[in-house]
Amino acid sequence: MLLLNASGCLDALTAPEVAQSLDAFVTKTVTPEPRAGNAPPRIAETEHGMLNAIGLANPGRVVFVKDVLPRLRALGMPLWVSVGGFSASDYAETCAQLADVTIELNLSCPNVDEAPEGAAEIVSACRKATDLPLYAKLSPHAWEMGETVRAVEAAGADGISLVNTLRGIALDKNFEPVLARESGGYSGPALLPVALAAVAAARRATMLPIVGMGGVSHGRDAAAMLACGATHVALGTVLFADPDAPSRVRSELDEALARTAGGAALGR
Fold this sequence. Notes:
Blueprint: E1 3-5, H1 16-20, E2 25-26, E3 43-46, E4 49-52, H2 61-73, E5 79-83, H3 88-96, E6 102-106, H4 116-129, E7 134-137, H5 145-155, E8 159-162, E9 166-169, E10 183-187, H6 192-205, E11 210-212, H7 219-227, E12 232-235, H8 238-241, H9 245-259, H10 263-266
Helix pairs in contact: 3-4, 4-5, 5-6, 7-9
């Protein structure tokens, strides 16, 4: 099992020690052109998690490939690059410029069609553009998760990442939206049951590797991901509050597996 970060939940260049405590680092989503992101406020804490409406803020693929990626390689650890866009060609052109990384295709952005044929079209275009490993990151909004998973697998995905955030709204004391954009992506502990259901549905549909994420805060949460069929586990919101989460979760996971019948099988 690999322990990773969820895309956008850790800046490896400002917190290299945290990144290096993981088995691989996943970058923030890279788009063809630079994006400033949405207007603030774009982050809001809730009782059991947080909302974000960052808007895929990033320097664009030219700066990423020429400047950011070499600096990340200096960390000396496996890298996963999250790739986004607004058309299949956007994704494919970025994938074609990458080397020696694993690619996670962000197919969960609100601006991207999440129907099985839309996700499959993007994966197929990227498969033609690169021989690098391709993981398809899917949304928990897809009720027929198995259908979507089978579609992206048939299109050439090498693995699945589940789940991205759920859409939500937080209101202030005057019942006005806290976020400037009104809604945002909801993450945190409350997302765990949704993520577990998505991982279990995906595992019934495929034998591909699955990265389970969403609400993982403790070792038992990671063990639950493995029990539902995840191959690897990613930490997200917990990293904002606890930079020691990777080592803590790893230790707690070992303890949980040791106490659980069949733990050795879960930890494979």
